Amino acid sequence: MAKQGMKIKIGVMGSASGPTLRNPHAVALARRLGEEVARRGCILITGACPGLPDKAAEGARQCGGFVFGISPAFSRREHLEIYGSPIEQYDMILYSGMGLMERDIVNIRSSDAIAIVGGGVGSLNEFTVAYEERKPIGVLTGTGGLSNHIPEILSFLHRRNDPERLVYDDDPERLIDRLLALTARVTPPLRESDIGGEREAPTYTQVEKTRRRQRRVRDRVTQREENSGNGRSSRKHVGSRGSKRAPKKADVRQR
Question: N or C: which end of the chain has fewer CB within 10 A?
């Protein structure tokens, strides 16, 4: 399924560890999720971590899909030896060197849509980034962890559980179909400023704005100084005229 000549990229975010990995039902659903991504000709993106996203990567790879991992590690060796993360299911891994939290942002921004399976605190971070950046999000319910609590989290935070941004389903096939339909309808933000980030502009435009602002400040300061100087001069002039003594009566008689 193409989007402007490119394959759609679906990021699968979820539990890398914890009790959901001991749930055979959640593991099977994660694998099926990856299979459905591959069957629709989409690229599957994960954080190149173990757990449920890796099971999705396994499912996609078995169906001939392309799997791209974004690792928090600086190198292949750090990825394997320090993070203990897998490489077997991946066609390509980017070693970001950014660590876990900053790597999450790259995961989200590299994906056209996000699918949540299971999930703990790290997945909650990925969900909130995706939500704030207005990514289409599909939640595979019944897989434990975060996936079972997103509506109440949004309600507690007074945020909209918007059906035009979020879809829920306990069946991987239906979820991916609904997520792709949602992706086709959603117009992604053009710039970071569209989601509340710092407004972007060419460097020369920013410099010119700063120079104009500085000139206005200098002009106001100069004007105040001139007005203040004129006021002192006027007071001094009035004071000098007022200091002349009126001639005494005796002086008038002498004249």
Answer: C
